[in-house]
Structure formats: C-alpha cells, structure tokens
Queue: 2 jobs
Job 1
Amino acid sequence: MRWWRPFTASVRDKVESGPVSGAARVALTYLSVSALYIYFSDRALRFFIREPDLLTAAQTYKGIAFVLISSLLIYLVVRKSDRENVRLLGDLDAKVKERTARLEEAMLLAESSDKAKSEFIANMSHELKTPLNAIIGFSEAMLSGIYGPINERHREHLGDILLSGERLLSLINDVLDLAKLESGSAPLDLRGFSLRELIRASGGLFREKMVAHAITMDYKIDDGLDEVVADQKKIKQVMINLLSNAIKFSPDGGKISVTARRLKDLIEVIVADTGIGMEEDDIPKLFQPFSRLEPSLQKRFGGAGFGLFLAKRLVEMHGGVISAKGKKGEGTAFTFSIPIRGDV
Ligand SMILES: Nc1ncnc2c1ncn2[C@@H]1O[C@H](COP(=O)(O)OP(=O)(O)OP(=O)(O)O)[C@@H](O)[C@H]1O
Ligand SMILES: [Mg+2]
C-alpha cells in the first residue's frame, strides 16, 4: 500500500477497514513522514550551513515551513473527508426516502387488501346468515306445530336441523366478530359500567340450560366492582364464552363459581367449574383457533373451537391476560385480568 493512501482513502474505505485502524494508520504515516523529514532536513541544513546563527535561523524557518505544510495537509484531508461525508449523507438520505416511499406503498397495499378481505367476510357472513335465519325460523315454526301436526321422526329431524343451524349461526357470528377485530373496525369502546351486573346478566343467559342439567352457579363478587371502565360489550362476550364452556363441559349436577375481585391495579375474574377438566399438556392448545381437545365429545357438545381464541383476543385488546388451569376429571378454572383504568 502506498504511504499516502491513508490520507486519501475514502470514508467508505475507512469505515470498511474500521475507523480505529484507519485513524491509527494516518497517525503512524504522519509520524514516520514527519520524523524522516525532521531528521534528514536537519542533517542537510547542518551539511550546507556552517554558520551557527544562520543555521538557527534556517532551522526556525524550516519549522515554520513544516507547520504550514502540515496545516495544509490536514486542511486537505479534512476537506476531502467532509465532502465525502456530505455525499454519503446525501446518498443515505435518498435511500431512506426511497425505502420509506416503498414501505408506504406496501402498507397501503396491505391495508387495502386487509380491508377488502374484511369486507368480503362481512358480506359473505351476511349472505350466509339470511338463508340460515330462514332455516332456523322455519324449523322452529314447524316444530311448534303451527303448520300442522308432525310425527316423532319429523320432530327428531327438525330438531337436528334447528341445532345445526344454530351452531352454524354462532360460528358465522364468531368469524364476523373476529374479522371486525382484525380489521380494526371494532375498537375499544371504554365506558364505566357495573361488572357485578354484567357478570350476573351473563350468567342469567344460561338459566334454562342450567336448570335442565341441575348445574348451579355461585358468585363471589368484591365490593368496588360496581363502576369499572372497560369495553362492556367485549367483556360480556368474554364472560359468555367462558360460562358457556363451563356449562357445556360440566356433567349434570355440576357446580360453577364466578369470582371477581379488585387486585392492586387489576380486575381479576375467575370462572371455575367441576367439569371434565383437561390434561395439563393440552392447556397451551386451548386458545388456538379451531382447537377442540376431545373430538369425540364434539358431536355431543358442538362448537367450532373459536370461543377461547376470541376471548383471548378481547382480553388482550384491554391490555389483559387470560389463562387456564385444569385437571382431567376434576374441573377447570379460567382466569382473566384487565388493568384498572381511571374515568374516561
Ligand atoms: N371449561 C372447560 N372444561 C373443559 N374443557 C374445556 C373448557 N373450556 C374449553 N375447553 C376445551 O377447549 C376447547 C376450546 O374451547 P372453545 O370455547 O374455544 O371452543 P368450543 O367451546 O369447542 O367452541 P365454540 O366456543 O366456538 O362454540 C373446547 O372444545 C374444549 O375441548
Ligand atoms: Mg366455547
């Protein structure tokens, strides 16, 4: 490598060879050139000038010349590096602008395709729900006998049609809810409400089913939960999904307990049942979409495996967490907590 190379190397070269080694090479080259210059120029002066006064004056001028030349060199090196920095910054700026523009384009494309997907799902759901409501409505009407008497076989098959229609409707509603969450068209609607009333009202929705299966529900709700701030509709959906599971997976005579309490800066709700429980290894699978632990029970219980997935998303939207604990044959407890918010 040529001795002047460190002075003229581009900033890119210096960066590539490492800033420390670049600086060290400049300093070393400068040191050796200066030492050689001082040594040989001094010897030359002594050789040519014998007169001591003249020699002293010549050495002074030589020193001044050295400082001038060094300053000029430093000026040239710094100027070159400044220019290069400006050029590199310009390049960098242009690249950043170009990439930002490309990113914006990609985001717009993703947003519009996401919106199109959600719109498609919403339209599709609507189209599916209209005939489904007719199927449910007419099978209910025929079962009630308003179109005339029906025999036992008809009753059985109409019952199947009604049950399947209701299950399909509930799945379509879940998919629609999820599409709304994904597309951001169902943002958090934070208001004050009574969690005590919400829990009791959610439990009330299952009264008939609980009476039919002799299932009891017991509430332990802390004082101070009469005014909480959250998205009432979404929390109700979480409660309904957890309670419907607790009832669905409990044998006749089962016991469900709902506990709600205020912890330091959290509200915690636990829904525990004395139902079929689950293997510990299966717990992580619960919150995945379409996960049903025991397909053999599916025929009996129905359900698409969407409820817990949706509940998790809704709790997480509040900045909360949901978890499950259970033991095969001994029941399950789901706990979710959301942060306490001030007035909105
Ligand atoms: N309380 C519970 N006790 C025992 N197993 C449960 C309980 N809750 C959920 N599970 C298991 O977790 C699976 C997933 O529950 P999830 O609520 O997501 O779906 P689902 O109830 O089967 O259907 P969907 O809620 O969509 O109608 C259930 O199929 C069941 O195997
Ligand atoms: Mg469910």
Job 2
Amino acid sequence: MDKNNLPEKGLNLLLLAAAAVPLAVAGYKAFKKVARKSLRKSLKDQVVVITGASTGIGKAYAIAFAREGAKIVLAARSTDKIAELAREINRKYNVETLAVTTDVAKEEDAREMIEKALDRFGHIDILINNAGIATYGYFHNNNMEDLKKIMDVNFWGAVYCTHAVIPAMISRGRGKIVNISSFVGKRAVPVMAGYSASKYAMGGFSESLRVEVKKYGIDVTVIYPTSTRTEIVNNALDKEKIKFGANIGMTSDRVARETVNAILDNKRDHVIGIGENIALSINNTFPSFVDTVMRIAPKLMIND
Ligand SMILES: NC(=O)c1ccc[n+]([C@@H]2O[C@H](COP(=O)([O-])OP(=O)(O)OC[C@H]3O[C@@H](n4cnc5c(N)ncnc54)[C@H](OP(=O)(O)O)[C@@H]3O)[C@@H](O)[C@H]2O)c1
C-alpha cells in the first residue's frame, strides 16, 4: 500500500461520509413523510378531546386535528371562546365539534366533560392534556396559593381527565393519552420552580402510566415544547414580575404539527427543537456547568 496516498484516501472517506449523512437524513425524512401520509388518514373521524382549547397551543391542536377530519371536543373555562372556535372549525373543516366549559382543576368538571364527550360520540380516541398556567419568581417569594394552583391545573387537571377517560379506553382496548409537559419538565430553570415541578410531575406520571396501560392497547405520549408564542406569559399568575413578552419562541402551529407527527409515529416522548435536544444532551453530561450558566436567568426573566 502506498503510504503517501493515505491522507488522500482519508479525506475522500471523510467527504463521502459528509455527503452521506445529509442524504441519509433526507431519505429518512422522505420515508417518514410517505409513512405518515397513510397513517394520517386514520385520524379521520377519530374523537380527540383537547383541554385548554380556547387559545394558544390548544387552539392550534383543535385546528390541526380538524384539518385531518377528526371530531373535536374543546374544553376550557372560556365558554364563548370555545363555542366560537367549535363553530369556526365545524364550518371550515366540516367536522363534528363539542364545546364543554371545564375547569380541569375541579375533578367533577373534568369527569363531567369526559362523560359529555362519551355521551355524544360513544368513545374517545385521543385525550390531549394541554390546559396549563405558569408562575414566575423566586421560590422564597412565591405564595403557597399560587404554587398549589399551578399543580391543580397543570398536574391534577391532567390526572383527573386521564382517570375519567381510562376505563372507557380499557374496555374498548385502544386509546391515546397525550400529555403536554415543557422543556422545563426535562431541565428546570430558576424562578420557575412551581411550573417546572408541575411539568416534571407530568413526565413521571406518564412514564408509569405508559407501562401500565400498554397491555390494554393504550399509548401515552409526552410532548416537551419550549418557548412558544402564546398568551401563557400574559395569563401567568404573577405576570407583573415578568420582563419578557409573549412574542418569543416557536409558533403554536409548529407545536401542533410536531405533536400530530409524534402521535402518528407513536413516540413515547418528543422534545421539540434540534437546539433544545442538543441543550438537553449537554445538560445530561455537564449538569453543574449548566447550573452555573443558569444563574444569569433570573436577571433576564424577572424584575425581583
Ligand atoms: N407557551 C409556551 O412557551 C409553552 C412552552 C412549553 C409548554 N407549554 C404548555 O402548553 C400548554 C398550553 O399553553 P399555551 O402556551 O397555549 O398557554 P395559553 O395561551 O395561556 O393557553 C392556556 C390554555 O389553558 C386553558 N386553561 C387554563 N387554566 C385552565 C383550567 N383551570 N381549566 C381548563 N383550561 C384551563 C386556557 O383556557 P381558559 O382560560 O379559557 O380556561 C387556555 O386555553 C400548557 O400546558 C403550557 O404549560 C407552553
């Protein structure tokens, strides 16, 4: 072997690998697109219950599933908003809709909403636990009422709805529970202890449930979006402390699109965003370093 040719051969191999990786990724994406196209058709006439459907990500879910021909149950506290959205998607996509005024933090409301959906459609294919609120500020300045409220809506709201729907899914031998957590449910950030805790709780709840209900034909998917341009900041319990506005991050439509794909791919969980996935890998390898970097976050996020 001519040793002088070795660097050249190495370079050629490197160039080949550099060309092969994007080609393989493009091929995989094309394959996924074709595979999802036929799966997409299966969403037609499925009954999808969405909590927190009056605005933001929940509204985007309602539109995304209606576009696929699903029957939509919209649940939130704002009666007028969900009624108007129900009419709008019924008109635009010619799908059946049901709007149920619901405060998911109240167990009886959550159970009644699921019962009304079952009465109307006979079964529920997909439950999306999306309703959520946020709170910011140093933990030592948080009041207990706000911290409890966050858990009541974000965690207990999902638990109540899931507990109400599971028996019907078990007896039917199929169903999907989709829980909307957050990037901060994978890597908590300072001045969001209560919110982060509620989103971690959702992840733990889902991980246990997923294994339990698999034998009944029920799948559990957790979605981890990062900053999304919605009303969440304006609706936060202590919004006067917050320095940043509602106009940062990804769009609700992107979150909805990626969630539909994650459901079609039957993923156990999905962290949205390449940068976010890289950040989590860095965090898993160097958590103390990330802790140090995070010390700057309170200054950027809140007026303390
Ligand atoms: N935006 C982000 O940056 C981001 C990032 C990661 C995860 N998420 C999660 O995504 C989900 C949706 O948030 P979003 O950004 O779309 O916020 P949003 O625009 O503030 O919408 C929140 C939705 O939840 C509903 N809701 C609040 N409290 C409720 C209750 N007690 N019972 C029933 N519904 C209730 C609201 O409707 P009513 O007020 O009419 O009840 C609204 O429809 C939340 O779980 C949030 O934690 C958001």
